[in-house]
């Protein structure tokens, strides 16, 4: 493996890992709203969102926060994946853990914020970086797909 390829891999790990750590930390900054907060705002005549698109985003995130477990769980998984990526030692595991997260983040921006072109491009880049990091480790996970003697049940 060439030196420039190793450097590129380290840079990709740091970019994706840093973004996930940042996103994970942000999940713990604000307190969870009450389960009836949006309903109470609507009943009192307050504007909940300036448009239907913003309302969809608010409802999506509000729903995750209202479970009282999913929003913090998502933050913990983002932190875990980010730390594993930044560590460089367990970066393949971090990239595999991060894949469903980056796919979801990409789809969130594609379907709920398609007008935010710069964010969509940024999230596309993170998804591509994640896929590249997993493909860089192909020689490590390839045997699980093709060598059935590695995985034995009972």
Count of individual helical segments: 7
Mean pLDDT: 88
- Report strand %: under 5%
Count of distinct strands = 0
Instruction: Estimate percent helicity.
Output: over 70%
Order of helices and strands: HHHHHHH
Q: Domains counted in the coordinates: how many?
A: 1
Which spans of ≥5 residues are poorly predicted at pLDDT below 50?
none
Tertiary shape = elongated
**Backbone CA Rg:** 19 Å
Question: Which class do the helix and strand fractions yield?
Answer: mainly alpha
List the helices and strands and how they pair.
Blueprint: H1 3-26, H2 37-44, H3 52-66, H4 70-87, H5 91-112, H6 117-136, H7 138-146
Helix pairs in contact: 1-4, 1-6, 4-5, 5-6
Structure description:
This protein has one domain (11-40, 49-138). It is mainly alpha-helical. The longest helix has 24 residues, at 3-26. It starts with a helix and ends in an 8-residue tail after the last helix. Helix 1 (3-26) packs antiparallel against helix 4 (70-87) and helix 4 (70-87) crosses helix 5. It is elongated, with a radius of gyration of 19 Å. The chain has helices spanning 3-26, 37-44, 52-66, 70-87, 91-112, 117-136, 138-146.
Short description:
With 154 residues, the chain is mostly helical. The chain has helices at 3-26, 37-44, 52-66, 70-87, 91-112, 117-136, 138-146.
Features of the shown structure:
0% strand; 154 residues; mainly alpha; 7 helices
């Amino acid at each position: 493996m060439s030196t420039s390829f190793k450097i590129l891999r380290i840079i990709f790990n740091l970019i994706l890992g840093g973004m996930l750590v940042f996103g994970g930390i942000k999940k713990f900054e604000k307190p969870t709203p009450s389960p009836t907060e949006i309903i109470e705002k609507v009943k009192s005549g307050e504007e909940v969102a300036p448009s239907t698109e913003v309302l969809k985003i608010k409802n999506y995130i509000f729903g995750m926060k209202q479970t009282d477990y999913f929003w913090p769980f998502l933050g913990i998984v983002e932190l875990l994946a980010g730390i594993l990526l930044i560590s460089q030692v367990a970066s393949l595991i971090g990239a595999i853990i991060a894949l469903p997260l980056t796919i979801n983040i990409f789809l969130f921006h594609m379907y709920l914020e398609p007008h935010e072109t710069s964010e969509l491009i940024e999230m596309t880049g993170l998804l591509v970086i994640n896929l590249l990091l997993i493909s860089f480790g192909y020689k490590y996970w390839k045997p699980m797909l093709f060598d059935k003697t590695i995985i034995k049940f009972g």
